[in-house]
Amino acid sequence: MSQPWQPWQGKDESASGPGRDGPAARPWTGAHTPVARPWPAYPAPQAQPGASGMLASHADRERAVDVLRAGYGEGRLEKAEFDKRVERAYGARTVGELALLVSDLPLGPVPQPAPFTAVPRTFLPAPRPRANGKAVGAAVCGLLCVPTFGFTGIPAVILGHTARAEIDRTGEGGDGLALTGLVLGWLSIAAWSILMTLLIAVGLASG
Length: 207
What we know:
mainly alpha
């Protein structure tokens, strides 16, 4: 079953029949003879002037001269060439002429890199881990051994060993503090041990 002809399908010159118009269509006799309808004539598109042919304004010329000044300041143009281009820019009639004068230059001053202020993360010092609280306590107790005559030596030793075990497990800081408490604590314990030994020896000798 043939599909009915639609206006957007264009003319069909390969067949003829009712509802089909074209140069090869044979006329039909009778009341239903189709009447030839002329195709609408659309106006041909007219060429629009390009942007390069547009007449240049004073602002266009000043912008082109600014670009030339930037190129000259950056050392891209010699003085003689700069003067020649500026003269041609002020005498240019169209935007296309101005574009040719600055086509080999950047559109404005080349941005200079900002001074380097930020330090890359790779070169930043690694953040120091938080000091273990028990390591701090061990160091404090070790330092108090002198004014307390060694009574804080045992707490310093206990806190020092506990702190070092936690530091190995958690990766916290303060191993030096824990070691300081251990050394001072053991020194105080050793001093008290020697003192007690001497006292006992003196007591036994005097008895």
